[in-house]
Amino acid sequence: MKKFSIRVGEIKLYYYLEIRERKTLGISVYPNLRVVIRAPMNTDLDLIRKKVKSKLLWILKQQNFFLSFEPKSPPKKFINGESHLFLGKEYKLKIIKSKKDLIKKIDNQIIVYQSGKNEVQKIMKQWYYTNARIKFYNLAMPYVRKFRKYKVEPESIEVRWMKSRWGSCTLNNRIILNPELMKAPVGCIEYVIVHELCHLVFKNHNSDFFKLQNKEMPDWEKWKHRLEKLLA
Fold first, then answer.
1. Contacts 24+ apart (CB under 8 A), 137-140
2. Per-residue model confidence as pLDDT tens digits over 125-167
3. Which of 29, 103, 155, 189 is most buried, taking the most CB atoms under 10 A from its CB?
4. Are residues 53 and 105 both part of a single domain?
5. At what angle do helices 56-66 and 45-54 cross, to 10 degrees?
6. Domain span at residue 45?
7. Domain boundary residue among 13, 41, 66?
8. Quick check: helix, strand or coil at residue 7?
9. 157-207: per-residue pLDDT in tens?
């Protein structure tokens, strides 16, 4: 399959083309967000591009359904020497028996002092959550102030573990961020924040939404792909 791309306004879409023996042209969108076009033999490339262009909003809607805001990090064993991410950097896990549960980040190590009352996984999960509440708020506020020019402001910035999304914007304008994002670089976190703030202005992923997102964060595609590559 060959890889192609089209740009419509502020939106750039990549797709793969597969030529095979068939009667009609088909478009498939997969959970990893890959778009595959299957076309009959000798189909004109311009015709294919026009078809993809005409189905762009449908493709974006399908990608949003699968949106790889969905965390898919491989399960960890939480053992000594295992690699764990914090703000995009890898750290080696070191577990030390202690009288109380505590975590320290020193050089290239995340040191977990474990009392035995809680499993290492639970201690680390609480540590990520606690850090996320502070970090996400501090990262979000400059963008919140920028978005006031559109006469919108989130009711709150909240942190909540979610199985299927990196972030969400509720109908009553509460922005919720997944503390799993603490494993990603700051740029990735800012991308999710900007994405959800754009939903305060445009609820759907239409062309106006992407135009706004591109305006407020011109390099959002780079951070989106980085997030998907790192944690998906």
1. 139/186, 139/189, 139/190, 139/193, 140/175, 140/177, 140/193
2. 999 999 999 999 999 999 999 999 999 999 999 999 988 789 9
3. 189
4. no
5. 60
6. 2-66
7. 66
8. strand
9. 999 998 878 999 998 999 999 999 999 999 999 999 999 999 999 987 777
